[in-house]
Fold this protein.
Amino acid sequence: MKRILLFLSCALVLLASTAALAQEDVPTAAETGVDIAWPLPISEVWQDVPVFGTASVQDLAFYFLEATALNDDQSIPENAIWIPISPIQSNPVINDVLATISTQNFEDGLYAIRLNVVTTDLNRYFDTISPIRLNNERFAVESELLRQQILAELGVTVEETPEPTPEAPADTNPRVAPLAEHAAVNIRRCDLVDNTRCPITGTLPSGQLADALALSANRTGWFQIRTLNGNVGWVSPTVVQTSGNFSNLPVVAPPTPFPPATPVPQSNVQVATLTVTSGVVCGVPIIANVTVTNRGNATSGAGSITLQDIHVRTGIVTSTAFGNFPALAAGQSFTSVIPITVTAFYNEDHILRASVGNSSVEFRYTLNQGNCGPQATPTPDGNMVDVELPPGSCTILLDRGTGFYNMPNGSQVGALDMNGSFNGTRITRVNGVLWYQFDNTQTEIRNWVRQQNIREAQGTCTIPGTGIMPF
């Protein structure tokens, strides 16, 4: 019984020797860094090897371990082929296990192990440990000798195991497949992540193998591959796992990336600011300073600025004025001084809106009465419309992309993401244009839409006093 316990103890010591040695020899790591703390240079390893160290840098994207076989003089080859030997990890590690490496698929010999750390801005940091001796044969021999010694001491006779039928030679052709976390990986024209200069030519689905044909001569680590359907292109080593023998893989130059696209010269004059340098008084010119800027990359032509005053409560445009700007070089600005006089709806809120094309800026204010007399009550006419619709009486159908506004003649505050039917709540006519207010389920508030943008109306959506549907 003591010898059996001795055998079990020796086996446990042998299996745990790698981890124990690593824990005793790991130095204290800094708060951040890129460092392999164990194995140490000139270490001998076998079976499953935990690699200790630190992979913690600012803006860490991911890290992985890779290895390459050494020359006979224990030097790293000049054009070393670094083979990934661990999954990609994205969480930082400080003085702990970086990964556990299974050595059983590698031939015994001398290797260098490298920690490859990549940041979000694609900077790379490395730490290399060399030489490391891989000796799986030693583990097998020592385990068998210990087993035979204990069985002999116990007087146990072991029948000879017949020689197994030789198996077919293992497939050592170099191949790659997407890592488990990727449903598919991109195949590109060259070895650069740039959809314009190095476009995608296809994909490699999860679980599918592709033949590895070559390594990039640019030393990026990218593989040239050929898929089952014959597509030949390049994949990044950070998104695939490898199988087979890569030691004889040739090195070839990928196609040169396409030149960057030349931007087309184009001007783009936009309203930058709108300020008022005078009082906002009824019947007195309001001095508006409108600054426009050419945000394009070519000289613009001369143009005009439209300045409108809008009464907030009704959406009525009470006054319109215009200003001009000269031809503007790229990045150049110009300020136009535009007077505008407003004589209606004093002591109420107004909006000044300056517009050039689709660009506009607004200035909200309250119009002071000044010397304006009492406001006349407008005389109703047959064109006036402003009625609240009974709840649930009117349904309007709107298409995806229809613009909606914060008020009639107001600012467009969005566009519908999808087709839909909406509850109409109010109809009003402003400056000859019909506007419908509706419950916007997209914004969860009421917005306005022009009548001409409504595809169809259902229910009682009539113009008051006429009974005529406006569609």
In short: Confidence is low (pLDDT under 50) at residues 1-31.
